[in-house]
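For the sake of transparency, this paper describes our internal protein records without simplification. Because each token names a local backbone shape, the row as a whole describes the fold. One such record is reproduced below, unchanged from the form in which we store it.
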Amino acid sequence: MTGILVLAGTPIGDVADAPPRLAEELRGADVVAAEDTRRLRRLTQALGVQPGGRIVSYFEGNEAARTPELVEALVGGARVLLVTDAGMPSVSDPGYRLVAAAVEKDIRVTAVPGPSAVLTALALSGLPVDRFCFEGFLPRKAGERLGRLREAAEERRTLVYFEAPHRLDATLAAMAEAFGTGRRAAVCRELTKTYEEVRRGPLGELAEWAAAGVRGEITVVVEGAPEKGPEELDAAELVRRVRVREEAGEPRKEAIAAVAVEAGVPKREVFDAVVAAKRAAP
């Protein structure tokens, strides 16, 4: 029989948040793959648990090389437990490669649900939570970061990002440029820890606040783009659009009606603008 791969959530701050099943899985696993074995040791000591199996490191630097080894153990019937430094494996942490490889071999994959910085920050942000998307870490290079943000500028869903504290000021400034200084956001710092802080406000204000320096683990939640209302066009633009349609062969009456629908204004307003422009012409 093949083994089973268990993804286990670990505390994002307060060790008391560890799911009760985590201790059981640590005792019963044949192999524990940990993002940082030193952190795992501190966690097991805090939980009063002695892992029953072999402990190996599994982090970004050795993920590709170690995955085949762990799959081989799974194929041989081992129970492999995967834990990261904080939160759920695979969510901006090692895990995806191993899960994909296990699935390909028809190995059962299950999870011990646990704390998540994404959902915790989202719930505390005060922003809409009915629809959201997780964007992970933004590119480190300024140009690539701004480009990624501009791609998301029209996204209606609430956006969730992870960011390093030393890049937070630059990221918030880029967000203010891409999304607008008035877009609402929340910076969630040190979630569930002693110095937990959630600072809410417009992106412009948050960027100014972060310029002084911020410490700790950071999750940023940004309000989605507002619903687009009818275009606000001045009289000159209304007239220009009517002329474009007329030059394309559309009768004036139909052109006025179509532009009125586009702009979300009464046909009379477009008609009056066209008449006024005609009178003003030399």
Notes: The chain has eleven helices and ten strands.
